[in-house]
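request received
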Amino acid sequence: MSINIGKVISINGNLVSVEFDGNVSMNEICYVKVGDTALKSEVIRIRGNVAQIQVYEMTGGIKCGDKVEFTGEMLSAQLGPGLLGQIYDGLQNPLPILAEKAGWFLERGNYADGLNSEKKWEFTPTAKIGDTLRAGEYIGTVPEGAFTHKIFIPFYLLGTYTVKSIAEKGEYTINDTVAVITDERGREIPVTMSFKWPVKRAISCYSERLAPTQTMETKVRVVDSFFPVAKGGTYCTPGPFGAGKTVLQHTTSKYADVDIVIIAACGERAGEVVETLTEFPELTDPKTGHSLMERTIIICNTSSMPVASREASVYTSVTLAEYYRQMGLNVLLLADSTSRWAQALREMSGRLEEIPGEEAFPAYLESYIAAFYERAGCVRLPDGSQGSVTIGGTVSPAGGNFEEPVTQATLKVVGAFHGLSRERSDARKYPAIDPLISWSKYQSVIEQKKSEYCKKILNVGNEIDSMMKVVGEEGTPIEDYITYLKSEMLDAVYLQQNSFDLVDANTGTLRQRYVTDKLITVLGSEFALSNKDDARAFFNRMRQRFIDWNYTEFKSEAFEKAETSIDALYSEGQGKLSKEIENLLEEGE
Amino acid sequence: MGKVYNKIESIVGNVITVRATGVQYNELAQITTRFGKSLAQVNKIDGDIVSLQVFAGGQGVSTGDEIRFLGREMRVSFSEDLLGRIFNGSGEPRDKGPALTDNMKAIGGPSVNPTKRILANRMMRTNIPMIDMFNTLVVSQKLPIFSISGEPYNQLLARIAMQAEADVIVLGGMGLKYDDFLYFKDALSKGGALSKTVMFIHTASDPTVECMMIPDMALAVAEQFALQNKDVLVLLTDMTNFADAMKEIAITQEQVPSNRGYPGDLYSQLAARYEKAVDFADSGSVTVLAVTTMPGDDVTHPVPDNTGYITEGQYYLKGGRIEPFGSLSRLKQNVNGKTRKDHRALMDAMIRLYSSYKETLEKKNMGFAMSRWDKKLLKYGELFETKLMDLSVNLSLEGALDLGWEILADCFEKQETGIKSDLTDEFWPKEV
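response:
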């Protein structure tokens, strides 16, 4: 394709109109030439011979008549070994390399390749000459950290291909040809270890999509037991500022039971990325024994970086997630925050002078959000193995009010909702996931009925609490008062969790099952408590013992000791388990 | 770039359009009106129609006025000579000193590469106990001071400017009342901090467009000092006026408003400024404290709301005090573990007891009988408010911690404070 050249005819913020001859395609990448630099841009609207492009950089200094070079390619991510452990900006430029080239600041027009083209990888062929393969099937593997990175027939190739030659086991760079394949007409196509894929298109080289059934452990009790997330599922975490969205995601990124975590820091604080960058290389992934950084990719487009690449960053991250899913891995994508992405859409929409929808968000907001979350999923791959992409997005609703367009559009498409509330965070009840408004459609790590029972206690406790605010403690019957105390205790010892304590922050499934059984025994028992003061004192003591229990290593000596002291207090209070709860507990056996 | 145009096509508010070619986006121009010369900045180009926002405002601009494009973007001079000087939003001197023109630096530059930042881990002392002890300010932190009109926020800023452990102070005033400007000038020169201060001041009577330039100028200068290995503290007052100026220009240019008339990019615009707060690896730092007045004391108003999502915590100024409950420094745990070993425990205990005091106060106001414990709390609350919370208190962190122990000892028994016994054994004041 010959290079298509256009010229600038108008500039408004980061929206530039370009007059062109020939053909230009939607979402094509082009470069605006300003002096010696070329600014990366994307075509977002075409009318007649005028293309409107969003520039991924600051637009100061552009003049009418400046040249624009169209590339004929869509915005793409470079896929191949070497992605893990990287820190990218929204357009997949590795930030450490940009820093080497430009120093302190992110100078515009400074780009770098997403993958290191000099590094050699140990390639082991798995395909044989004469094998027929399709896109998404693999011809060999290279080890990447703790993972076996598969080398695929590029996803964009249609039809079936025959392997004509394949490289010996040995060391190759990502640009060396490791195989030659021929298509149905006998045309030869060289295959390297890396290829490009347009980020706004979902990768669909799988046999079938499966329902997400397996629970993804996050080690956060309130999530796993009450509002679980499935591998291949989606969830969202809306909350006002200061409610702990980022801390919750940070904890999840450390402890979640998945192979690979992709953190998309989209329009948020740079300081938080620095925190991850400082902390992760020091931590160990319990699953592989390698550094936590080796299972992590950070895509970071912080709030002060150009808005258009913020929009791209979300797509770049999900593309990388899908790529690793194709290797049969479970990938978790954490996007913080999807509201900033939606705001980027709003800014462009405003410049395009589109008719605004609610709160000036564009009318296509919902379909964009839906399409993004739909890229999550659990799939069966051509070789029969399974892989998944789980997407968790935070939402930052204006004023903490969930009735706004981004939260509402997200709630329609996700499988679990973890609503953070200001009330809980003000009371320092972390994680501030509000059990009264949150929900999940996925399978809990504990028995469904037990989970329901606990949630019921929380609801009833809340009702009694509201009642007590009207009639006072004196006017509340003691049975109700005890139920209220039980729900408070459940909240304090199970829902609340100290994300800065190594043991408490990391509560596995077995422990959750074990602890809930003990808790339900206490919740479902009657005690010999004659007055409210006694009741309060009793449950305060019980609460303290459960909290101490939380801080002990599972099944350690201290754990057993703490458990014995809970049992002792239970006997002291002459606890009597109701028949109904006894049945509930037995059913789970 | 000396071409002169003298046919203005339209004048709407502070925005004029002119037919011109070869003009760059964001370029500056000089417009000569009957009232003198003013800068103007290109903010839209459509073919040969160029829109400019006139710094001095549209008032009195005639269709025949002369416009000369300067071929460069907005810049600010940077050198040590800036210290002690006062400028307006166009970068012209507001004091009687000479204009500075050498070593011009672009304003509103690109953001810092996140891999070149380091984790914020140094405390910035202010000698205000409610900050140092309870919500420690950390070097490179960005914090707003949420306040309602009428609170002494400028007095607070002036005190911080005088007392904070910073090498350079950059003060950006937006929509300041003229007497507040005089107050700052006066207070800083009396406090002896003027010689390490640069001021960029836009007063309420100055043109709106200049207001929008203040944060960029102040932060560009701060960044340059930081790159010379200085710890810079930027004080901005009041960011709500900055947002309102943006709103005014956006509406004039017929942009679709998103929320209460503010433009859709309010978040990005505010973030671009606040994110200039940085601790450079192997160099200096920029710390930002910005007053944000909350119209109608409403924290869900778009300006404080968007700010809260950007900044690392907030100080609430209410009733002349920094509120201990709503205020939060998200970075305090990075530093308060290594100040003095009683810092965290004492901070937590004092806040917890103060919160119990508030509950007791409520009970008292409803007419309930006060128990012995309640009376202790009441005494404690009063001492806490007068001796530590009051804004006029001026104490080093260590002094504040010692005073904290004294207040506790004055009101409670050791075990009533809920502090671990090894700390009370060490720090509890001895009987005199």
